[in-house]
Every structure is written in C-alpha cells, then in structure tokens.
Amino acid sequence: MSTTINVSVTSPADWKYISEGGSSIVFSYAGPASPYFTGTALRLRKTSTASGQVDLPVLHDTPDEEEPDDPTIVFQRRVTQRLVPEEYLPRLVSANVTEPWLSELHEIHNEHRPQARRGKDGIAVKKAKAVLADDLVGGEGFVVEIKPKWGFLPSSVHLSPRSKLTKTTTCRFCMHAHLKSTDGKDVSLGYCPLDLFSGDKVRVMKAMHNLWDAWIGSSGQVNNLRVFVGGTMLKPTSLVRPQHFGDPTLSDLRDAFTAALLPALLQTPILQKLSNLQQTLDPLDIEGLTALWSEASETAIPPLGQGLAEPTLSDWDAFLDVYHTKHSTMDHDHPDVANLRYYCLAYLLSASFKDCSIMIRVKPGGETSVAVIDLDVKPIDRLHKWALLDAEIVQAYEGIAEPTKCVDRWAM
Ligand SMILES: [Zn+2]
C-alpha cells in the first residue's frame, strides 16, 4: 500500500474488544460505515505491565527503519505465503496508531478483558504501527475458531528407546492434555487432533463432538474451540439454561453444530496442508534435533538453540529456497550436522503451524469459508523450552495404565 491507513482518525469507542492471546489483542470496527474500516479488525501488540517491553523476534534486515511493519504482516508476506495458498490467509495491512489513541482505547476497553489477563499485561501503547485485517469474526452467520494443534505422530527413527513406544502410540496433544489435566488445568480431554485431520467423516464428527463437550464442560475456558456470533464470543453458559418443552437439548445443539461444520471440514484442503507442513518441517522430532545439536557441539553442550541468531527475513528467504528445492530429497534419517541451523528454522516454522487457528464461517444459507490465522513466527529461544516441555510431557505419560491409542491421520 502506498499510503498507510491512520486508525487514530476513528474514535476508540468505535472499536469492540474481541479476544486476545499471549502477545496480541484484537478489536473489531463497529463504528459508522467507512470504506477503510467497516469489516476490519485491529490487531495490537501487548506488553507485560511489569517490563513495558514487547517480546518479539526482530525480523528486519534494516533495524534503523523508523518502526517496521508488524512482524505478523512481514512474516506472512515473505514466508507464510510461500507455503499456504493466499486464499486461506486473511488480508493484512499496516496501519498507523498513536500513543494517545491507544491509551484511550485501553481506558475504554480494559474492563472487557478477562480478569486474569488484566493484571498481567496490556496494550503496548508506545507502538506506532498496528495490523488492520479482515474481520473474520463479525458479519453474517456464525464463526467457529478451532485450534487443531499437532496433527501427526512422529517417525520413530530419532526417538530414544525410552520414549519411542509412548510417542508413537499417543499423539503429542493427548499426552499434553493428560499432563495439564493432572495439573488441574482446563483441557480438551478426549479431543484428538488426528481425528480432526483424518478426513474421515466418523472421526471428524468425533473430534467435533469432543471439542464441543470440552467447550461446554470448561465453560469456554479451553482454547481449542471458540464460537463467535456477530463479532461477540459466545459463552457456553448462554446455551445452558432451564429447559422448556420443545427446546433443543445441548445434544441437539451439538449435532446441529457438527452438521453445519462437517462439509467445510471434510472438503477444505487446508487441514491436510497444515498437518503436512507440521510434519514435513519437523522430520527429526525435538529429540532428533537435540541429538544433532549435541553432535555439533564440541565441548560442553549448551541448551538447544542457545547462541543461534534470530533468523532475519533474508534467512527465511534462503531457508524457503532450500525447503522448496532440496527438502524432499534430503536424508532426514541421517541428518547432516551442516544442516543444523536449517533444521532449527524448520522446527520453528513447524511450531507456527502446530499452534495456528482455523476460522470457519457458516453463512445463513449454510455456505462456508475457511481461513488460517495466528501463523506468527516464534522466537528461537523457545527451542530449548520445547525440548524441556517435550521431556516433561512424555515422562508424565510413561507408565500410564491405559495410554490413549491415537490413530495417525492417514492410517485408515
Ligand atoms: Zn491423540
């Protein structure tokens, strides 16, 4: 875009709080009709109130630029669009914001945020740029956000004798859900991503039933399923009310909900695309990556990823050039130490696809559309955390009396 849209010409009161994640918060435009803002959502960065810092990887090759466009935009343009068909990605443009405008927005809307979030962080008011995107949750019909998570079982090649059986029997999500539930957290117990990714009608229906049950059972606290009507997140409690004769039961609603989404989930190629990318970009498993890292270290072994520079956009360009030309013929069973950084970047990218959401809009006539969101790049220092978390998850699952037997998505 030649001229950047200035969001501070609107009133902060014309924006409605939608939702937030760990690093960003989203508002949708609800003001007077505007060719620039109607049908858009504003995504802003958050900052922890303690540090005032925004924790984002630096992507830019030119750090002396005034304030670069948000990494979400830059990363989508340069990286994600080379992997995911553009028709499934939301339109993102850079927009200018000002500190007084962001402060006022914060003042007006902070009370609408979940209590637990308010004490921890807030809008990063010192940012000069934000992301203006298609409003995927407002508009006609209803919108379902699904965070599908890990859609494959790892190859056993790089797994330790200790973890091999566990990790090839039970998928990562089901093991992690077990750990979280023993910690007393709300989780989508029973939901297995491999069912959702299977393309098999019966299994996809089972996945949707499990997601619905977890959504109802946790009063909407689990983040694998969210439902929006007219831009507002629906609370399961609004469905659980005293029954009158002839009212649909929760089971009826679950069936109608699943039936409305099933055609889109079975027809869209995007689920298969996502699980293929997750798996292809993670050929070694974190265990194989850790082993390769150790092999490359001459003396004391630093934590996985420590000392690796955060990839720049040029690094990502080069990575994708190799990915598209050589990845399929590389011998991933015997990875070359010379490719260590390549495998680390691949794992980072795989993590984005393991943590994204799909948005399914069901229009009043039943027509559906699907988009993929939250494909931000993760900082490289996560690698070490993921290695530790993986070990913790597997350890907590070892020796469990009746492990869940997850069926890989293409196994049927
Ligand atoms: Zn599973």
UniProtKB/TrEMBL annotation:
This is Inositol-pentakisphosphate 2-kinase.
